[in-house]
Amino acid sequence: MSSKNHPDHKPATIAAQAGGLLDAETGGVVPPIHPATTFLRDEGYAPVVDGNVYSRTASPNGRMVEQVLAMLEGAADAMVFPSGMAAVAAVFRTLPAGATVLVQSQIYWGTTTWIRDFCTRRDVQLIEVEASDTAAFAALCAAHKPALAWIETPSNPWLRIVDIAACAQAVQAHGGLLVADMTTCTPVLTQALSFGADIVMHSATKGLNGHSDVLAGALSVRDSEAAVWQAIRADRDMAGAVLGPFEAWLLLRGMRTLPLRVERMSQNAQKLAEYLHDHPAVETVLYPGLPQHIGHDLAVAQMSGGFGPLLSFVLKGGAEAALGAVGRLQLFHRATSLGGVESLVEHRHTIEPHTGIPEGLLRLSVGIEDAGNLVDDLGQALGQ
Ligand code: PLP
Fold it and tell me: Which CATH number fits domain 259-382: 3.40.1190.20, 3.30.465.10, 3.90.1150.10, 3.40.50.300?
């Protein structure tokens, strides 16, 4: 394995060339897969290759994908995990009993559900806040001095936009850390560390991999010497939430087209949002690329190159209208998840009925298909 790292290389170049990773042994232009779990030591008992001892601590394929992700994220370091939720858990497990955390409300329900349960079991005080309300977020930071604040922007499935820089300042002013789940953006649209976040989290299952065939999570950090980062690394090592070499290899393969996919998904989502905005059967469209969206100006300031694949809209006529339309769609697959090359649709109320999701809301993850075909499918399902 070898790599070249040029500071002037743009994300498209870093991604396409996997950060310069090659197979030095064969001359292959694609990095190899190393399935070994254990590695040789020499006669003096030093590892034959520095850092390669046992793959729960560090694996060559894990390191490769982490290296490229850190470059794309503008991070000092990155770590991959076997799912997005494993990455969420790795952060929260560093909290001591009795700590206080501030968590954005109405984010991905799996995150909320797990954090609520974890905080109860661990005697951690949990405060939830609509973090797109910067003043409310800052007031709670001042009042409770949380050790950690968690945001997600754009949020899933409400598409709320949170001011990363303002939240970072508010929580750091009282000694806390800001962690941002940037799954829907990917580093192509927003590098949250450059806005002041301490740690960025991704469900790499989504846009980073982009092909709906790898379950993975990732954390990236601004300061790799920070105590929290060392604690997360030690916990991953000993508790063993590591990504296998085949998944790590596939993830890196997926990431090679990341900028291209994010650009096309964002263009398609923008077209669909505009189409839906003008459709008589539609009550509201939640997409930050629309000037009518409440967070549009902030999204323009914080996101570059598009507004991502995630789009929600509310149909007039509630659950009956939404489930009728979803049943008629032919090109959009009825399935959960987001950020893949194929377009998906989901009736979130069916999945999380007690969280206040409107019954008429449909969430789209817009893929890279032809935008005209996607518009036609929505048109026939909604009735033109
Ligand atoms: N964060 C967000 C925004 C998500 O949408 C998801 C999954 O849907 C997760 C975290 C959890 O990731 P995973 O399913 O890879 O565990």
Answer: 3.90.1150.10
7 Cβ neighbours under 8 A, 6+ residues apart: none
DSSP state at residue 317: T
CA angle 227, 230, 234 (to 5 degrees): 140
Q: Choose the residue to mutate in 156, 212, 310, 365 for probing ligand 1, maximizing ligand atoms within 8 Å of C-beta.
A: 156
Cα–Cα distance measured from residue 258 to residue 208, given in angstroms and rounded to the nearest whole number = 6
Give tens-digit pLDDT for 52-107: 999 999 999 999 999 999 999 999 999 999 999 999 999 999 999 999 999 999 99
Q: How far is CA 344 from CA 87, 269, 276, 311, 330, in A?
A: 24, 12, 16, 11, 10
Element (H, E) at 318: helix 318-328
The full set of domain ranges for the chain reads 11-255, 259-382
Cβ 365 under 6 angstroms from ligand 1: no
Name the residue with the closest Cα to ligand 1, atom 11: 84
Q: Write down the pTM of the prediction.
A: 0.97
Question: In angstroms, how far is the first alpha carbon of the chain from the final one?
Answer: 55
- Give residue for tokens 């409107």: 358
pLDDT tens for residues 227-250? 999 999 999 999 999 999 999 999
CATH code given to domain 11-255: 3.40.640.10
Closest CA to 153 of 181, 191, 195, 111: 181
